[in-house]
Amino acid sequence: MEGHTPTWGPLGEMDVNWKGQIAALVRDGYRGAIHLETHWTGPTGDKFEASQICGRQLRALVEAEAWP
Questions:
Q1: For residues 10 and 46, what is the distance between their CA atoms, to the nearest angstrom?
Q2: 47 to each of 1, 21, 24, 41, how far by Cα in Å?
Q3: Which neighbouring-strand residues pair with 2?
Q4: Residue 25: is it exposed, middle or buried by C-beta count within 10 angstroms (0-12/13-18/19+)?
Q5: Which of 27, 31, 33, 42 lies in the 20 to 30 Å Cα band around 66?
């Protein structure tokens, strides 16, 4: 946040502890889907590119935690 304005960025590089969130889901035995909704516009202003970047980073985090 900058003041009262949210700031968006690539998944895993902002304030949310995604690694910890994924680890907690694995630890608790969650086996469902993870939904990704991006608001970041990406490095070039292309929301599709931003979604691809965030999707790749989410996949890497999930794979690193040995998702069942």
A1: 13
A2: 20, 24, 29, 5
A3: 5
A4: middle
A5: 42
Record the pTM. Answer: 0.81
The first and second tokens of residue 29, run together, are: 């035995």
**The two three-digit tokens of residue 21, written as one number:** 């969130």
Backbone phi and psi for residue 64, each to the nearest 5 degrees, phi listed first: -65, -25
> Which tokens sit at 51?
């979604």
5 — pLDDT class (breaks 50, 70, 90) = confident
**Cβ neighbours for 19, distance < 8 A, ≥ 6 positions apart:** 12, 61, 64, 65
* Amino acid of residue 4: H
Vertex 60: Cα angle to 23 and 2 (nearest 5)? 75
